[in-house]
Automatic annotation (TrEMBL), chains A, B, C:
Pathway listed: Pyrimidine metabolism; UMP biosynthesis via de novo pathway; (S)-dihydroorotate from bicarbonate: step 2/3
Domain of life assignment: Bacteria
Catalytic activity reported: carbamoyl phosphate + L-aspartate = N-carbamoyl-L-aspartate + phosphate + H(+)
Domain Aspartate/ornithine carbamoyltransferase Asp/Orn-binding: 148-289
Protein name: Aspartate carbamoyltransferase
Quaternary data: Heterododecamer (2C3:3R2) of six catalytic PyrB chains organized as two trimers (C3), and six regulatory PyrI chains organized as three dimers (R2).
Keywords: Pyrimidine biosynthesis, Transferase
Length: 312, 312, 312
């Protein structure tokens, strides 16, 4: 069985293989469908449009069957544990679950107990592995490799589940990671990278990766943040002009327009924000397919023959 | 790209063409399926059973794939704008969206900005074009044409999104529109038609079209309404007896039984209320197909060849 | 048309036929798909994971098309009655509805009025026929027949919709039913069986059937219950040791771990709790198929030819 819980679980070969698969799905050069009907379920304990719809789209494109699950109308409301919920779905015939959950490392104990693979779609302030993979795909698409690339990650470093994984993987893959953001949101113990001033970050970066202010995870009043944040740490129209030639802008979205980035820049030439969303579908197809192939192999036990079919 | 935002956008030829298509779908004389998988999403920001399930049924019957979207569990909860939500869905691969929204003309700015067609499933107190089309289909089914027909629209004229479009289109198509209802709900600036007394309306009408009291849009206590409304403006058992031979009763539903119409009349011989719901599926098939055909043509650019296939 | 509202509606031949069908579905010895697309809808007015997902899985496996219905975003919020909701779905093309509702015997009047079959997925403190059927399937799987079997039903007898139907059907099928549980939750008028002390029940039973404490239906504070309940009426580790050789443990779930049953016993060798969930899918396939076959026959009127196809 093959969970995907953190990107750190992936060795470099596996990670690049997923990016290769995603690229082949994007170009229509690879098709995988399960040999028999396969069933998945999406358990979202937090609000989501992008990630949830993107997984659903990937599942449709792989020809998977989706058993709908809504937290608000489920037995979670009667106090059922996450383990019992997953094993119930497994008993009913669900073969893999995608989970987003507000608790950091909700999967810690679960991963050794459940009988079907979990794909982590975000855990609290922890990780969001498919977001990291789609970010890496978007960067590789643009620059061909990661080696020597300057990537500036800017904003709410402490609460972001994107920042940590991206900083770690980019560093492993040879990029130089620069960090910037308000002092009270810096995170010196968990994120690898060099802290620099905002204006320096903008000028040296090949990739300006803005983070979302997770207003829903803060206790401060959003207004007091918005007023000053854009001037100090946002990508203003003026700052964009000082970006390097050929450099790009990324943001995991949803964007707080006029806060992390000027409204006018969200869809500017440098922006890859909607491209990231497009790539998300292909990355999730690659991840789901690998996970379900491991289930298929498990089901037939001695049948390890290759299930991948190349499109002509 | 082809939005459907208001019925006024349709010229008479187009409108009648949609009714013809719907009739052919109803009779099983027309089949259209997209040549490749096509994806749609239904964004309902207001409660709905009829319209929502009817669109889902139409989508199933056309073989479309539906990416589920629930406002309550989406990033709308994090403050994402409608524009960003639609463009996110578009980036992920959704090719048309059906939207119901509490804001009048929510589409006003959007329609020039979004990259996929919007089908309006109701905007505030504004329009509800597929409801208008299904009403027209139901009337034409009964009487063959609209010319010279007397249609009485009765009730909460000001808050109704059905009244305005129906009055406008029926007048254009040659019917005589009569209006009746409480003074405080009359709307002399926006609705075309002759105001008459309730009892006169009942006696001259070929079609008695009752409007729903949109209790959820009123501030008054529903009880005070219900007590007197039925006697004054409801279709009572006594009033039904004075209706013309061959005349029919319509209501967009959900019906407040015993308020707009006597409980016993909801499914009486004259009533076309459930027939309206049946027709809704076919009208929506016609509208969705036209919208997605425009997307298909856009995708292939120089391929404007006819995608409609007649069933043998 | 063929509702399934209570198990008492089924004569013994019909009941055993459903269990036979379910067993054939389980073994892959029977396949039924509707000859044309058939549409169903699941109306859950109470929280559920197991029952709801299990019906969805059964529907997928039968190749049915599901029109999603969410109470919270439906016109039920505008006061639409259950009758009008069902008839609306029927008008739109839905051919059978699965309903869970908090009101006892919500179907009482409905069943003579609606135009499509209802499958009851639980009514208040009333019945839950497919749960009863899956329990019977699980017992028959284990022991081959019901004759002379000792079945102890333990716990919240009064609020449980499982206890009543199971006690009635098991008695009819020749089993001896023993009941145990807190005095204030006993129900001498509605449930057939012999009341015995907890420790006696455990020792004589071939089947120890634990009931869920429906905390959501009680007014007492759950903590005061939990503290003493497990010692007095729960299946403790110590009690399990005194169970008969070959006897099994059942529970309709969701389990309150450490209350009705010790955490460690939920997945022990004797436990059939997850097996019950697996069987639920097959029982629901059998029930849905029978219900829809009656619709199919109704549709063609003079065509009563057998629609069941045996798999080779």
């Amino acid at each position: 069985m093959k969970h995907l819980l953190t990107v750190s679980d992936l060795d470099q070969r596996e990670l690049l293989q997923i990016l290769d698969d995603a690229t082949m799905y994007e170009k229509g050069q690879m098709i995988w469908k399960p040999s028999n009907s396969m069933f998945v379920s999406n358990l979202f304990f937090e609000a989501s449009t992008r990630t949830r719809c993107s997984f659903e789209m990937a599942q449709h494109k792989l020809g998977l069957q989706i058993i709908p699950f809504e937290v608000m109308t489920s037995s979670v409301q009667k106090g059922e544990t996450l383990y019992d919920t997953i094993e119930t779905l497994a008993a009913i015939g669900v073969q893999s679950v995608v989970i987003r959950h507000p608790e950091d490392e909700y999967y810690k104990k679960l991963q050794h107990e459940v009988s079907i693979p979990i794909i982590n779609a975000g855990d609290g302030c922890g990780q969001h592995p498919t977001q990291c993979l789609l970010d890496l795909m978007t960067i590789r698409q643009e620059f061909g490799s990661f080696n020597g690339l300057n990537v500036a990650i800017i904003g709410d470093l402490r609460h972001s589940r994107v920042a940590k994984s991206n900083a770690e993987m980019l560093t492993k893959l040879g990029a130089n990671v620069y960090l910037s953001g308000p002092k009270e949101w810096q995170d010196h113990s968990n994120i690898c990278g060099h802290y620099v001033e905002m204006d320096e970050a903008i000028e040296i970066a090949d990739v300006v990766m803005l983070l979302r202010i997770q207003l829903e995870r803060h206790n401060e009043a959003p207004h007091s943040l918005n007023n000053t944040y854009h001037e100090k740490y946002g990508l203003t129209i003026e700052r964009e002009k000082r970006m390097k030639k050929g450099s790009i802008i990324m943001h995991p979205a949803p964007v707080n327009r006029g806060v992390e980035i000027a409204d006018e820049l969200v869809e500017c030439n440098r922006s890859r924000i909607f491209k990231q969303m497009k790539n998300g579908v292909f990355v999730r197809m690659a991840v789901l397919a690998r996970s379900l192939q491991s289930v298929e192999r498990g089901m037939t036990h001695d049948n390890y023959h290759q299930k991948w079919h190349m499109a002509k």
